[in-house]
Design brief:
Layout (H helix, E strand, L loop, with lengths): L1 E3 L3 H12 L4 E3 L6 E5 L3 H11 L8 E3 L3 H7 L4 H10 L4 E6 L16 E5 L4 H10 L3 E2 L14 H7 L6 E3 L11 E4 L6 E5 L5 H5 L5 E2 L8 E2 L2 E2 L9 E2 L4 E10 L6 E8 L6 H16 L5 E4 L8 H13 L2
Parallel strand pairs: 1-8, 2-8, 4-6, 5-9, 10-11, 14-17, 15-16, 15-17
Antiparallel strand pairs: 2-3, 3-7, 4-7, 5-6, 9-10, 12-13
Helix pairs in contact: 1-5, 2-8
The structure holds adenosine monophosphate and magnesium ion (MG).
The site of adenosine monophosphate has 21 residues, from strand 5, strand 6, strand 9, strand 10 and strand 13.
Length: 316
């Protein structure tokens, strides 16, 4: 990545890079984030590629304030209370996706929810303002490495990645944001602890719980369960039955079936990742009994795509 300072020209360049679908690593008060325009599926897919994540998990979407959240998610009274108390700051809120939400489905990894945070760091805020788009950003470290709290950490880990890195010095908190799920009708659920503690939240919301073993979907900081289509799915399909919806990849088009969609006509894995959840959602709503998916090559993002498809095929 090319390293930049935090002067106005550099921030303008970085904002332009984000708008154009590129990657920008930037400081927040928690850790450095690896950001991309959350409305651009291919830009979001590049985050997963750069991090070498072996699977897709939902990403936090960074916005300036709650008014911006309401463009994409459904803001309830709990969210209003917590935003009033802790935003901008190290608290992430998971909310239902608004119908017709224009964020890439990849930021939700197929779930009907989106995680939002309004960062307090002045550089992060400046970048969001200049870019004028919501920015999805997980921690700027390769998968399996420690989260980066200094620009040096990011520069070393992402030497060969195309993108910009804004050096804003060390991060004040150095620990990922607190994540609270407000998307259900039930009590708020603390998914990950951070600088904002359970007690801090309880001062504003009477009903906050930790995920329990009998909450099958959630475990601390993670989604134990993944989005899975509600119809049987077959991978590595070269043929499809009359009542199967077909997902092809490049020239690899299963014979037969109906409602053909191509994850990427040119056989590009970044494009395929960007289309994956959207096309699966479309397929499961069609008048079909199942979904047949062509073989997807294993390199780069292919690993995460195949992981998702394998889980869908096994129903987990
Ligand atoms: P990271 O961006 O790597 O700091 O991690 C984001 C955290 O937020 C992860 O623990 C995710 O599981 C969680 N998260 C993000 N989006 C959602 C969502 N839609 N539902 C539940 N958890 C989420
Ligand atoms: Mg992380």
């Amino acid at each position: 990545m090319e390293r930049l300072g935090d002067d106005p020209e550099s921030l303008q360049r970085a904002a332009e890079k984000l708008r154009d679908g590129g990657l920008v690593a930037f400081p927040t008060e928690t850790v450095y984030g690896l950001g991309a325009n959350a409305q651009n599926g291919q830009a979001v897919a590049r985050i997963f590629e750069a991090k070498g994540r072996p699977h897709f998990n939902p990403l936090i979407v960074h916005v300036l304030d709650l008014a911006h959240v309401s463009e994409f998610g459904i803001v309830n009274a709990q969210a209003e209370h917590l935003a009033e108390a802790f935003w901008p700051g190290p608290l992430t809120m998971v909310l239902p996706r608004r119908e017709g939400c224009i964020l890439s489905e990849l930021v939700s990894a197929g779930h009907p929810t989106v995680a939002f945070r309004s960062p307090a760091h002045p550089i992060a805020r400046c970048l969001l303002e200049e870019a004028g788009v919501p920015v999805s950003a997980p921690s700027a470290n390769p998968s399996g490495y420690l989260s980066p709290t200094r620009a040096d950490h990011v520069a070393q880990a992402f030497k060969d990645i195309d993108g910009l890195l804004i050096d804003g010095g060390p991060c004040r908190i150095g620990l990922e944001s607190t994540v609270v799920d407000l998307s259900s009708d039930g009590p708020a659920t603390l998914l990950r602890s951070g600088d904002v503690t359970l007690d801090n939240i309880r001062a504003y919301l009477s009903d906050v719980v930790l995920p329990s073993d009998d909450t099958p979907l959630l475990s601390p900081g993670m989604l134990a369960s993944h989005y899975a289509p509600h119809k049987p799915l077959r991978t590595n399909a070269t043929t499809a039955g009359d009542s199967e919806s077909v997902l092809a990849f490049g020239d690899s088009v299963p014979k037969g079936g109906k409602h053909l969609q191509n994850l990427s006509r040119s056989g590009n894995l970044i494009e395929a990742a960007a289309n994956l959840f959207e096309m699966l959602h479309i397929a499961e709503q069609q008048d079909v009994t199942g979904i047949a998916v062509a073989p997807i090559p294993g390199g780069g993002l292919g690993a995460a795509i195949n992981d998702r498809l394998r889980r869908a095929a096994h129903g987990d």
